[in-house]
Amino acid sequence: MKTTNILDRWGKGQLLACSGLNGETDFENGLILRTEDSAAMQIKQPGENGEIIFAPGIPESCFLSSDCFRINGSTGLLPDTHHLLLEGKAEFKDLPDCFSILRKGNRTLLGVKEYFRPGLIDLELSAEFRRRVDFFAKLPDFGIEKESSLKTLAKAYSQLKGQICSPCRAIPCRWTTPDRWPHRAMWLWDSVFHAIGLRHFDPELAKETLTAVLESQLEDGLIPHMTSPVWHSDITQPPVLAFGIRLLTEERMDETFLRRSYPRLKRYLEWIMTHRDADGMGLVEWAIEGNPLCRSGESGMDNSPRFDSATKLDAPDFNAFLSLECECMAEFAERLSLKEEAEKWRRHHIRLNAKINELLWNDAERIYMDRDIASGKLTGISASSGFLPLICGAPSRAQTGKLVANLKDPETFATPFRVPSISRKCSAFYQKDMWRGPVWININWLIAFGLERCGCRDEARELLEETVREEEKFYLKYGTFFEFYDDRGECDPPELMRKGKNSPSEPYHQSFHDYGWSASLYIDMIRKLHTGKL
User: Fold this and answer.
1) d(Cα 109, Cα 500) in Å, to the nearest integer?
2) Low-confidence residues of the chain, pLDDT below 50?
3) In terms of Cα–Cα distance, which of 297, 355, 289 is closest to 322?
4) What is the pLDDT of residues 189-214, one digit of tens each?
5) C-alpha dist (Å) from residue 95 to 99, 102, 323
6) Coil/strand/helix, residue 68
7) Does an H or E element contain 101, and which?
8) CATH number, domain 169-531
9) Angle, CA 371 vertex, CA 365 and CA 372 arms, to 5°
10) pTM of the predicted model as reported, rounded to 2 decimal places
11) Where are the domains of the chain?
12) d(CA 21, CA 202)
């Protein structure tokens, strides 16, 4: 793609860090910077303190990627994971003691004291800067001519590059994180969505990042929802790994990769079926937590009103994911000449689809709903999760028609920006807070995939176009991809709440900027729209 007139948007919250594509990263001591509204950057790691000020006010012009920048005549880049090399004017404020500074002429080297390398101040800065910019020249633009789309695509590539981490301790190969701050760790379903974007410019790296997730598997088969180089969680997350691997291998089969991945996938899905079907009815339920702001981190829909009652629920999304995984596993087993296992996985897929329709469909509300396993009744809460059985092919033609009508109904899900995380009919639960109303890019991507699978190609394309348009609008305004977006179009993403409040000074109570899957799935969606490969 072209390398001129791109990455020219300054805005708060853009993250800079060394990429695992350029060299070794450091989970605990690597330098991570975050842009401010003005021409300045905060140091977010290590120390999570300090500021670099380039000029007063908003920058007049800039080039800003995830590992190098030009701003108001100053040039900077991260030559490795511990250092920032600057040429031009810069003022440092409130630096933590863990940093060292070296000045030479108009150059400044900032580095983590324990790893400080003074010789980096003499780096051929212009040549290395050019090499970083040339990274974009090699990337596909999918025939896009619209300037706003090209600019947004360049940002998506840049951001995804910055999310790549090198092997470290418990993670033996390169891996991705939702954002380099504050999440930092590797998350299960995020990694799959990152790989979906990565496959379009580095398919081998995409496979490597999924291998990293598979390698986090525990002895009993559980794959944790979150793994860092030094610890892991004890719950899982939406099972989409087999689906991700199918997407990675659909154009070019890698039987070695498939043969290596299959046993871990098998043990993981068997763990889910053993540990997440509390009532033995054949459908699975997400783990429920005590935290009212995160009742079900395992589902990925942390604070959805679906989980307000804190009871176990047969979940349409969990079972749709599991059914799709079983379908993928049947294909893998066939490819690996495991005929009996292929038949077993097909039976699971068919059984789950039948159970989803039997127990979770609400015909009056035209959507799938959670079922309280204690009462045996549907909860009555219409959420975006109710459209996800489309991805495994569960709905009949009549049910698909009703789901589509629901998506187009202004009294339910046809908000100014679709698809809201809950229906307008659930107004008692509505808040501009994560899964209590706002729109999530990965859910839109999944619903569009399901619509296409079920024969609704035009509706799928329309949803992708809406989603891409919204992401482009806010990238051009703020220079970033957000974690979630307002379904009503009443406020911009930075104004939305996160887990009860909007507090920019608290990491987990602000709408995240430079968020992983919003960028990676933009790459996939814009490619689909411009190549016709929906």
Assistant:
1) 40
2) none
3) 355
4) 999 999 999 999 999 999 999 999 99
5) 7, 13, 51
6) strand
7) strand 99-104
8) 1.50.10.10
9) 135
10) 0.98
11) 15-137, 169-531
12) 11
